[in-house]
Amino acid sequence: MNPLLNQFLSESRDFSQEIGAKLMQLEGAPDDQAIIDELFRLVHTLKGNSGLFTYPEMTRVLHAGEDLLGLVRNGQLAYSRELADRLLDGIDLVMAMCGDIESTGKIDVSRTQGSAQMVESLRDLLPPVPDLAGLGGAGISGSPATGAAMSQLNMPPLAEIPEATRMDAFRRSHDGETLSWIAYTPARECFYQGDDPFYLVRQVPGILWGSTQPSEPLPTLAELDTYSCILEFHLLTTAIPEELSEHFRYVPDQVNIVQVDPLWLVIPLGRIENGAAHHAFTAKMLGYLERNNLEGLRKYTTKSLKTTIAGSWQMSALSWLLVLLESHTDNPEALRLLIQSFDGAIAPDWTALNRVDAARAKASVTQIEADIKGGNESQTGEKHPPSDIPSADSEEQAFARDAILATQLQILQLVDHPAWETGRIRAVAAVLRNLWMSAGNGQASSEIEAALSASLAARASAPLLSWLEENKEGMAGHLPQPGATSLRDGNSSSRPVETATQVEHSGARPAGDEVVKFGRRAEDAVNGQRSVKVDQAKIDRLMNLIGELVVEKNALPYLAQRAESQYGVRELSREIKAQYSVINRIADEMQDAIMEVRMMPVSFVFQRFPRLVRDISRKLGKEVNLVLEGEQTEADKNIIESLADPLIHIVRNSLDHGLETPEVRRACGKPETGTLTIRAAQEADRVAIEIIDDGKGIDPMVIKRKAYENGLIDEAALERIGDQEAVNLIFAAGLSTAAVISDLSGRGVGMDVVRSAVEKMNGTVMVNSELGKGTTIRISLPLSMAVTQVMIVESNRQLFGVPLDHVIETVRVAKTAIQFIKQSMTAVLRGRVVPLKTINGLLGIPARAKTNADDEFAVLLVQVGGGVLGLVVDGFRETIDVIQKPLIGLLSGLSAYSGSALMGDGSVLMILNIRELV
Amino acid sequence: MPIEFIADQVIFRDVASVEEAEALLEQLQTSPRATVGLAACTHLHTANLQVLMAARPVIANWPENIELRAWLEGALKPVLGGSLDGNDDSRSR
Fold this sequence. Notes:
Helix content of chain A: 40-55%
Largest sheet of chain B: 4 strands, mixed
Low-confidence stretches of chain B: 80-93
Oligomer: heterodimer
Shape of chain B: globular
Low-confidence stretches of chain A: 129-152, 358-392, 477-525, 737-748
Radius of gyration of chain A: 44 Å
Structural class of chain A: alpha+beta
């Protein structure tokens, strides 16, 4: 798995844990703005991170969460437990997705649906904002139940599909295939996101029909913007909505998927021919239908079809009737609607039929409502008893029966005596009869009959009422949950409403009305983590401890020496030395191991370059081929991390100023595509990173002139310095790259920033450039900043450490060879003039430098910046590895020293900061 | 090049990408009488399709790929609305 993804996964885990913790905290202090801010930041970051990868499901969930928290943060939405619950669920879902990615490399397809539902449930909490409404929901609507609620207005424009295709689709649907309508309106700017809507559409599974049309009138060619998508697509497919939502998962907000009821396809089209026979025609057909003589109807239709004019509306309608007769014999309502539509030659409103179906599903509710209104006239035997409620479980039935009983009771208890009272009583009796029948108690019907006739005779509801009062307990006995007490309760009428909503709900979610679980964390299998995240402070502490161990260990040779020289115990001395070598080996290995923990491959920094280079070169209109080498080279975490900024800066400079545009390159006889190589390699205990471009190089003359104009060099230097030195001037402070060639450089940060950043890490940076051929910038860094090699020098009986990175060589210079130029000492060494400084003078030690017996000074040649300097000291000592400790407290102000280190004998060695010193 | 401009002909080959659209538009603007050959085309980016729909050039030949042909005929033939199953839909109006 790619390391970036690995890091993302491990970070996501941390983030989600933190988000969970913050949500918990918020529960205790819902108004704590700091927590809300932090929470928002976490979700926002996580969302941003997820966007780096192609996990739209995850990003969408997080985006919804972010929107929600954004409102909470701005005080537009109050924190609630509900909100926390949903956010936690959302985070759990995200974690489950992370688990998928970890185990299989991608998000499980089944999550798409969950993600859409999650987004919806999060967006539910948003205050209604009109333009957000369309964004949130998944593009799937029209599961069978919601389809019922669809009005003719938002019916998909199926009429645009040719009739033959529609008939084919209709037959397929009858054979059990699902039909889906897709309206896909790509975002105008989708081309910029690399989308090809046409390609996406062509890949839709099971296409039966498709069309494309401009979503607005096409402009003239002169006004046409080729990069703005103005097409939209309509499709009819046999794919199931889940499959489609997976297919369109990147653009759920641009696509509308509707599951098509096959009847919707029945849209007769054509010229309307006026024929006098039409009405009789329709009546005759209805007659066949009433008698349920479908065979007769079919024959009559076939016969009529022969007499209609080709291309007419009637012909189309009759053809459809035949198709319907083939398959929909079980649905007389549909046939009736179609035949009735013949009269007006208007396509039947199939949504009306659906509404009837939906209404039937809610029969009990309708009945109750009708009863309450007292509209008993409509009550006939064809009323659907509650047992008709499809798939209602016994508990729901119990609720419904309770509700019905309560309503009947209420009706009977009414004390008004309207003219239709007898009808009302009859209706109640019918309802009760059906109710008892459905409970399997048939003999009650004769009792009800008797009570009814008594009531009718008395023109009062009392006899029926008393029968009901007596028997309702018995009825309740048939029910799992009697709820008898609620019958007398005056408020019981509120129950039916509850029932109604429950029925509706279970219908709207075919999956059942149990809450969809997204795999809560507690139930998740523990994901084995192979990496341990450790606070950097702990590693630092280990590092310090091993440093102390190394120092302590270095004391052993001293001890051995003393044992021998001072106490004359040779045996002991040898034993101590033997022990020392063992401890030395272990300590070395331990040090290596701890260093290794801190090691990271440079690919951590390199990874971002392909994208960066691509973006910048695109912006600049240049063709660049990026070559990365040695990505596996490792270095200390601190080094790698601080490398990022300078490298980005150099790369940006190379792209901006180094590489030329394709035209210029062609003119110079170079390949159009420039090459930018970033190479890392380990060289002994250092990492070398080279950024090589084959661009136009740096013109030393231009640099010199700029440096002179900026007052960085004087006139004499302008004449004197060589090309290489001139090129190195780009690192000088005050000579920003912006001034060098163009004004396109990034934010006025010059190469001097690169240099100081590299030098802060004890690194060096060099530039080599050949005009017209290219530029190479070379950064050399220590592998680790923890161990520094220093050379010990002595001056005025004090020891000082000089980082070996700076040391060029040690020489002896005869006192007579030193020349004084005004107050400055100089000497000619290896053919060049080197300025000399005494370390005593630099540190303010009131002592003169000592010479040896031959009257020679000890001179340490050091590299400072681009130049060479001779440090006059009293004598040289050995070089050692030390763990350098920064100066803290009162000493931190001493810039002459970069730090201190402990020596094996317990003394403190001050490390000189040469750069600051001179 | 996936789109070749030869005299008064625009010939599509294989897959025409989004980068081609600008040149296509330019060509159709400068020579409005150009005919378009699609026979060897297997796919064209939406941007190109859009340009063709706006320009409505004379189509010299249709793609050999039947499915693509159905799409393009639906989009580029004078009658609005297309049919993937190749049925002539004049009867439905």
